[in-house]
């Protein structure tokens, strides 16, 4: 039997003190983070310097600065500490608590997902969903996420993508606005206030082109995102362009109306994504089954999926 070589590692407590001091460029801030005295941090750094036989910091009047050797050491151990932290969080989250961390777009979260989460919690009371919203692609390396909802064509080389729904744009407004501005022809929109999303500036032009409109949208009110544009429509400010899935509940309730039934498929879809090579957890698979049945509205399919998957044992 071949003996496994013993790892040659520097003392870990001095390494931790050095990493904190290098990251903050301050012994004082490192001491606060580690809940020890500045003298203790300084002593631990000196132990590491003695062990390595090099100087890691240059002391200056207003703080510390890494030497060349210190910078090389910090570059390596920073990656190592990040890997250790990420691995520890994954094990801790899945081994002790059933937490499901999901990132989504603001509009998807506010207008579609959040109003339905009570149903998920009712069906899976032992899974705690931690929902965050961002317009930026999810950072799975440092973001401590299980999955992210993302829009596009699904061709992301590093991600496994499960298609949820196609994007279909329709104009919407409040019943009061429609009563004051009865619309029968698409070109009447030229005189209306069009509510737009700065995050999706091409939605109105795309819909108008697909509806054979003869004008370019100029009378606009721009909001940060589509969710705010829909809120503006609810407040009688004008006509918003929205994804049909996001406003279907309001259309069914009559709080919004669609002046034109014509919908524009953008060629994009929404996907539930996670890193390739990462095995999805049981809570994530349950979430995927649930969100698909919420989109299709097939309760029978939902019951079948739950019987097939079964709610995982948390003991």
From TrEMBL:
Which keywords annotate this record? DNA-binding, Transcription, Transcription regulation
Going by the entry's taxonomy, the superkingdom of the source organism is recorded as Bacteria
Which BP terms from GO are recorded?
DNA-templated transcription
Q: MF terms per GO, please?
A: DNA-binding transcription factor activity; sequence-specific DNA binding
- Does Ribonucleoprotein show up as a keyword for this record? no
Q: Which InterPro entries match?
A: LysR-type_TF_proteobact-type, LysR_HTH_N, LysR_subst-bd, WH-like_DNA-bd_sf, WH_DNA-bd_sf
Key word Transcription regulation present in the record? yes
The Swiss-Prot or TrEMBL record describes its family as follows: Belongs to the LysR transcriptional regulatory family.
What name has this protein been given in UniProt? LysR family transcriptional regulator
